[in-house]
Structure formats: structure tokens, C-alpha cells
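Q: What would this chain look like folded?
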Amino acid sequence: YRVGAFERAGVVPPSDLDGLATVAKTVTAAGIPAFSLGAHDGWTLTDWFENVYLRLAGPQRYDDLAAHRIPWTDESVKATLRQLDVLWSGGTIAGGVPTALGSSFEQSVQQAFGASSAAMVVEGDFVGGLITGDTSARPGIDADVFAFPSGPSAEPAVMGGGDAAVLLRDSPAAQAFVRYLATPRAAGIWAAYGGFVSPNANVDLSLYPDAISRSIARSVVDAGDQFRFDLSDLQPAAFGGTEGRGMRGDLQQFLATRDVDATAAQLEADARAAY
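A: My prediction, written as C-alpha cells:
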């Protein structure tokens, strides 16, 4: 988020979803739209959905939906879509829906921290690299972060993606190397270079190179068993990982129409076809 935009509106980072809606409306009323959306890249909208769903429905329901044990027409999905509608209404989207649907993720960061046309971008820790590389905003001074606000349970859940090291050819040396990569020592070396957050709870947080990296790493560790992997990445590719189709396409359509029932029905139809 843009620190100056929050200061001018007299708001602080919210701790829950109701607070996020209030902050969004307050900064918008103060003269700068709350959110810059790079909705041309549909995965940004799946991230929005997943974050809100995890907070409203809870980790167990999240797991059930990820495995398609419950349908996308479930009330928990509709409640999440309604919450998204609240957050995205009232002029809170920079440039309106057409601009959002025409903007890439990279452009959404530029709009918020370069052109100063929005107060917030909802995305992962990799936003920091674009801020420092593509804008004059200074992380920790002009730009800061807060964890995605909690839902009714107030538990510190975190939704994120990640990478895994996989052995393609087995050997004692390769096994030893992968075991080493799993140690706090190896993760600490990587963390010190920046652009990396380790899920290893034993990595010394002081090794991260800046306050923002440390706060993000702390949120992952603090979430513990409440951490959940990106839901769309757990789906068949046709449903969760293809631009313009499945979750991505359906949520782009929802951004334009705000039709909760029709979107839920289409998500379920697409999920059934992919599964």
C-alpha cells in the first residue's frame, strides 16, 4: 500500500475484512481509488478470491473446495463473491472495471506506485521487486505491506504459492543436496539475498535483508497449520491455470457483471468439466 495515501486519508492497515472495506471506501473518498487491479491476468483475481474464501470459510472448507468435495455453488463460495462485490464497489477500483480488465499485473503495480493512481495492490511478496525495479517508490518509506485481513475467526491464516525442489535422477549426492536445501542454514543463505521467503520455522528472521521481507516471513511462520497453498494452482490446469478459462475467466466475468449466482454456477460447471 502507498503510505502517503493512507496518511492523507487518516487510516491505518486494517485487521479484518470489514476494516478493509472501510479503509477502501475512506481512501477512495479522500481522492484516490483504493485498489489497482491487474485483472487482464486472471490469476490476480483467483488470488483475491482465495484470500477472501480462506478467511470467510476457514481452512477445512478451503481444503474441501480445493479437492472439489463441495460444489462451487456452495453458499461459502457465494458469500465470498458477495464480499468481493462489496470491496470492488463504490469507485474503489482505479480506472473502473474496463481499465482493470485491460491491465496486466505489472501495470497494476506501476499504476499504484508509479502513477500514484491507487492506494493498494493485493498480491504476493514479489510485488516488492517491481516497486524497486519499475518505480521511484521506496519500500518501507513510500510503500509498505500488511497481511491480508482476517475473517470472523481472526486466526492468522496465510494463502501463498511456492516452489519445490524435486529429484529427477536419484543418487546419494542428490539426496544429500536436497536434504541440505531443507535446512535452516541453506534457507538462511537464500533469505539474506532477498526475494525469497522460507517456510522453515527455524530460519532466523534477522537474516532477511529488510523489514518488509521480515514481516512477510513472520506472517508465514505465524500462520503455522493455517497456511494454505494457492487454490487455483491445486486445480486441473483447464480450470485453475488457463488464462480466459475456468476460475480465471469466470472471475473476470464476475468483475464485470457482479452476478453471484451465475458466476457460482459457471465455476461449478467448469470445475466438473475439468475434473
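The chain has a mean pLDDT of 95.
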